[in-house]
Amino acid sequence: MHFFHYRQNELYAEDVPVRLLAEKYGTPLYVYSYNTLVRHFKAYDEAYGTFPHVICYALKANTNGAILKLLAKQGCGADIVSGGELFRALKAGIPAGKIVYAGVGKTEDEIRFALKSGVLMFNVESADELREIDRVAGTMKMKAPVALRINPDIDPQTHPYISTGMKEHKFGISIDDALEHYRIASRLRNIEIVGVQKHIGSQITKITPFVDAVKRILILVDELKRRKFNIRYLDIGGGLGITYLNEKPPVPADIAKQLLPLINGREVTLVMEPGRSIVGNAGILVTKTLYLKKGEGKTFVIVDAGMNDLMRPSLYDAYHHITPVARRKRGQIRADIVGPICESGDFLAKERMIYGVRRGEYLAVMSAGAYGMSMSSNYNSRPKAAEVLVNGGKHSLISKRGTYEDLVSHEVMPGFLR
Ligand SMILES: *Cc1c(COP(=O)(O)O)cnc(C)c1O
Fold first, then answer.
1. Does the active-site annotation cover 56?
2. What does the alpha-carbon distance between residue 15 and residue 305 come to, in Å, rounded to a whole number?
3. Which atom in ligand 1 lies closest to the alpha carbon of residue 102?
4. How far is the CA of 9 from the centre of ligand 1 (A)?
5. Rounded CA gap, 128 and 134, in Å?
6. What CATH number is given for 103-272 in this structure?
7. pTM for the whole thing?
8. pLDDT tens digits, 230-246
């Protein structure tokens, strides 16, 4: 559910015509809906009702400070994967006590920063990492709260690049080795074991992988509790999918309905790490048609947003619905919608049937709120897109368009070239 819709053939973001935003702020432009974001957060929060839970939004999906702040105000926590994300989360007012820290390659500096900040827990992915956290915590005379990320070997049935919970993946600790790793952790003096975590992949559109993974993890939780490990947090990760084309993913309440009876009776706080399902459908990318070019049997619609602005089609061959900002009565054409970047992989859509579009007209790339701006780059020396947040009839710039000066501002000229 989101708040982008047509009124008399004009696309609106909540109560604001998207065309007006494109004219005021320029393109390419990311537009987010405040009320969609709040709604998505509440869908999780309400689904788990009075069962103790913390929703830790996965920053990597979208790191804009205004979005983080609005989530923080709703009571949201954060799932971070780097020191930079920790910095952003704290800056936006997310309390450290609601921040969980994941990732296979945490550095000493990052571990130190997280300990000093007082994060809820480290989700640890290897024995080596456990020993390093123990060592760093020791130098700080602190105890590091830790959950082990366990790989339940469940196929999430999603794209291989965003599947993470199987044996061949670099993530987590195999469930077969879990007890041994908890034993290693228990011998480390500066480690406090507080939980179990799993995250099996992204854009999951079926309930079964979630349920099967949690069932496997619960067997481990019970075994650990029998062995007197103080497991207080059960972190079930993120990964719930959204509708890009015609997927019908479950809503958080559907999942909660199946998970809560399984978990009930265990004294744990449930932690969730949704990213895409919070921001994905809460954002669109607005782009202007620059040129039309007739190829053999199809047309190239050349727009001002490229793979540097939205990488998902190039990277994952991902589908995004693309729709005119102003709908007009025109016939359909078959088109590749491509950006200005000098790569054949620079496309937003291939072989797409769309309504005839003309130079200067705007298109909206839907479901672009997650892994859009956060994966964007300056490739081809293209300044970053601007971002706008709409709330009812109000709209506000939340990230300025990049400038040419930004492209070079961090470069340093060596003395011998001056
Ligand atoms: C990416 C990631 C998430 C969020 O995944 P979504 O599919 O965006 O919900 C959560 N937890 C971890 C550990 C991740 O790597």
1. no
2. 24
3. 13
4. 36
5. 10
6. 3.20.20.10
7. 0.96
8. 999 999 999 999 999 99
